[in-house]
Specification:
Strand content: under 5%
Distance between the termini: 12 Å
Shape: elongated
Keywords: Membrane, Transmembrane, Transmembrane helix
Order of helices and strands: HHHHHHHEEHHHHH
Strand order of the largest sheet: 1-2
Structural class: mainly alpha
Largest sheet: 2 strands, antiparallel
Radius of gyration: 25 Å
Number of helices: 12
Helix content: over 70%
């Protein structure tokens, strides 16, 4: 029996409800469990009102309450909630880099990048250095994403069950989209023309922005996946049991 306790539904019927949710495109076990709980309660209430209903008849009536799009809206709401949870986790770890003693390393990175830009000064290679660093950041993130794909997919499953937050963590929460940010910045700077790269204000702004991107990348690609087991166990009571 799964982790929902019912007074009237049999173990087999509970398993049928899990199968029913999977057949209707609910792939994550945490959302399946929520829907099974909801459907089972609804079926039991219907049986209280009309004991002659079969399990399938009661299920069909309950499913119709979700409307013509079925579980689509429920899936969308769950994804929205888990996405909010993911970005809160990211922000939690990001803030740690602005507290002692990590703040010292953050400042060192930013000052180091600023010093490199200032040292390059009026050099004709400064523009290429800036654009090249952005391209390198993009390519590194993309290569890492592709090289770790199989390993991440294996870790995403917990005894054959997929949890939505695990999916986000091991797929970097859509963070691969952020990897295109350096590319877009490089394209924009390259197309802008002019001597924007000579200003010390640009050096400071670029150093801070690049430091922020490096920290976000480190957290998304390294910290969150390494701490995924604990984060998932804290989020899902059933995760340790899966």
């Amino acid at each position: 029996m799964e982790y929902f306790m019912s007074k009237k539904l049999s173990n087999e019927q509970i398993l049928q409800l899990y199968k029913f949710t999977r057949q209707h495109y609910v792939e994550h076990y945490d959302l399946q469990t929520e829907l099974v709980d909801h459907l089972a309660n609804g079926i039991e209430l219907q049986w209280q009102a009309n004991p002659d209903l079969t399990f399938q008849e009661a299920l069909n009536r309950e499913f119709k309450k979700f409307g013509v799009f079925g579980f689509h809206d429920v899936i969308a709401e769950k994804q929205k909630a888990m996405s909010k949870k993911y970005w809160k986790l990211l922000w939690r770890f990001f803030k740690q880099w602005f507290k002692w003693p990590k703040m010292l390393m953050t400042a060192s990175i930013a000052l180091g990048l600023f010093s490199i830009l200032r040292f390059s000064g009026q050099s004709n290679h400064k523009r290429e250095l800036i654009l090249g660093s952005l391209m390198l950041l993009f390519v590194t993130a993309l290569v890492y994403f592709l090289m770790t794909k199989k390993t991440r997919e294996a870790k995403m499953l917990k005894n054959g069950k997929k949890f939505m937050l695990a999916d986000m963590i091991y797929n970097f929460g859509g963070g691969i989209v952020l990897a295109y940010l350096p590319l877009n910045i490089a394209i924009g700077l390259n197309a802008s023309g002019g001597d924007w790269y000579l200003s010390p204000y640009f050096d400071w702004l670029f150093s801070l922005a690049l430091t922020g991107m490096l920290l976000c990348g480190y957290i998304i690609f390294k910290v969150l996946p390494e701490r995924a087991e604990q984060l998932l166990a804290d989020t899902y009571p059933e995760y340790k049991l899966a």
